[in-house]
Amino acid sequence: GRLRWALRPTTTMSLEKGGCFGAFINHVLSWALWLVHTMFSIYVTVNQTLHKIRRIWAHPRKTFEKLPKTIGFAFERGVAGVPEVVSLLQACVRHRLTRIVLHDLEGELVKSYKPISLAFSKAHKLPVRIQLGGRTMVAFNGKIKDLPLPSQDAEELGEGPRLVFFSAETTRRTMNRSLREFCTQKLNHDEKEGRFDPAGNAAAAELASPELVVVVGRHFSMKGMPSWMCGTAEIG
C-alpha cells in the first residue's frame, strides 16, 4: 500500500509536466499530421495530372503540320536578329522541318551564317548542309567545312537538314520575279498555276520544296499575300 501511494504523486507530476503520456500524444499527432499532409499532396498531384491529361486530350497540341506546306516569317530589321532566327530554327527541329530557305534583305543572316548554322546543327544533332551563294558547306560538331560538289560526303548527307541563304540582291530579284509571275497568272485567270512562291525559282533550283521561308528585312512585307499563305507570320 505504501508503494502504491508513493508512486501516485510521481505519476501525477509526470502527467503535469508532459512526460511519457505527453510524448506519446505528440508522436501520434505528428504522425497524423504527416499522414494528412501526404494524402493532400497525393490528391493535389493526381488532380493536376488529370487536368493536364484532359487538356491534352481535349485540345491536341498544334503543330506546323496544320499549316501550308511553305511557311513564311518576315522579320523587321532591328526587331529580330540572330537569336530570334536561331530560336525559330530550333522550333523547326521540334516540328521536324528540315528544308529551310533564309532570305536576307539586310545582310544580317549571310554575315552571321556560322552561328545560325551551328545552332541548327546542334539542335538537330545531325550534319546540316548549307548553301551560301556558290559555296556548299556542312555544319556538324561545332565546325563548318566546305563541301565540294559532287562528292561522296554530299551523297551521304542525303535528304538531311538543309539551309539555303539568299543575299539581299538575290532575294529581291527572286521575290520580284515570283511576284510578277503570280500577278501575270492572276491576270490571265490561270488558277492552276496561280500561286505566289516566296522562295522563288532560284530557291527551287537550290532546294526542292522548302518547308520554311524566313525573310529578314524592312523592304519586304507578308501583308496582302494570297490567302493560301494563311500560316504566314509577320514579326516587326
TrEMBL record:
Keywords recorded for this protein, A-Z: Membrane, Transmembrane, Transmembrane helix
Domain of life of the source: Eukaryota
Transmembrane stretches, start-end: 24-46
InterPro entries assigned: UPP_synth-like_sf
Record GO terms (molecular function): transferase activity, transferring alkyl or aryl (other than methyl) groups
Protein name per the record: Ditrans,polycis-polyprenyl diphosphate synthase ((2E,6E)-farnesyl diphosphate specific)
Organism expressing this protein natively: Lotharella globosa
